[in-house]
Design brief:
The chain is built from 11 helices and 8 strands. By secondary structure, it is α/β, with parallel strands linked by helices.
Length: about 270
């Protein structure tokens, strides 16, 4: 048995995440949408796996996160949760699943929790979703917030430019993060803001902050796994560090496979019955 997969692994929970924040232990987070990727991330010790609505971009090929549905998020969360033993799994509530009414938001969050083994949900926005967070978290569903650049509002922004560059907007984002904590969020993602603002928000909160393009002073960091592995090359933001170039490696492997078939070197005698 692999040492990375002990028989009784300690499950990461909201309490674990808060203890890491309090002990100044950085929290490592990545996205996953399928069984194989989730198994790998969990085995090597990732703390949080986000089943992100970024599945719309890197899995479905859409230009934004808006098209992905609640049922699709549930489908992908099931695939991830079925294999994860240690990491905390968090599921994005997709666009229009929590914006209409608080009651609908709670029903949809509850549907995710009932039909998957997710450890919690995530919503985008600050003060405007505080009542949603208060209801969902108040009913026992761990809820993560998200401030700064909000991908579900990208059409409103008109692009993926950093948020919080003016003091007025920075203060608004800080207030949004505080509102989420007061509403009961267990952590807040901060996306694409100046590093000093990421630090200010982290210092203003007692709950953990998870940065994505928000500087080194957040309680933890998250990236889209397909980005950091060099699998998804259509969007390459400055904050992504590439730890591999798997698109190149896969292309080489498939090209070799095609060549081996064309020259009849595959399958060989040892690969035949």
């Amino acid at each position: 048995m692999s040492l990375a997969s002990p028989p009784n692994p300690k499950r990461v929970t909201t309490r674990t995440i808060q203890e890491m924040k309090d002990a100044d232990i950085p929290i490592a987070c990545l996205t996953a949408y399928d069984f194989l990727m989730a198994r790998t991330l969990d085995n090597v010790g990732i703390d949080i796996i986000l089943v992100g609505d970024s599945v719309s971009n890197v899995f479905q090929g859409n230009n934004t996160t808006l098209p992905v549905t609640l049922e699709e998020m549930i489908y992908h969360t099931k695939a991830v949760s079925n294999i994860v033993d240690r990491a905390m799994v968090v599921t994005d509530l997709p666009f229009m699943s929590y914006q209409v009414t608080v009651e609908e938001a709670f029903r949809n969050a509850g549907k995710i929790m009932k039909e998957t083994r997710s450890g919690g949900v995530k919503v985008e926005g600050g003060k405007r979703v505080a009542k949603v967070v208060e209801k969902i978290s108040g009913e026992g569903i761990p809820t993560m917030g998200h401030v700064g650049l909000l991908p579900q509002s990208i059409l409103k922004y008109g692009g993926y430019q950093p948020r919080g560059r003016t003091e007025e907007e920075a203060q608004e984002i800080i207030e949004d993060a505080i509102a989420l904590e007061e509403a009961g969020a267990f952590a807040v993602v901060i996306e694409k803001v100046p590093a000093d603002l990421g630090k200010r928000i982290t210092e203003a909160l007692t709950i953990p902050t998870i940065g994505i393009g928000a500087g080194p002073d957040c309680s933890g960091q998250i990236l889209v796994t397909h980005d950091m592995l060099g699998l998804y090359e259509d969007f390459q933001p400055r904050f992504v560090r590439k730890y591999a170039t798997l698109n190149d490696e896969i292309s080489k492997a498939v090209s070799q496979y095609i060549e081996d078939i064309k020259n009849r070197s595959f399958p060989n005698e040892s690969e035949s019955y």
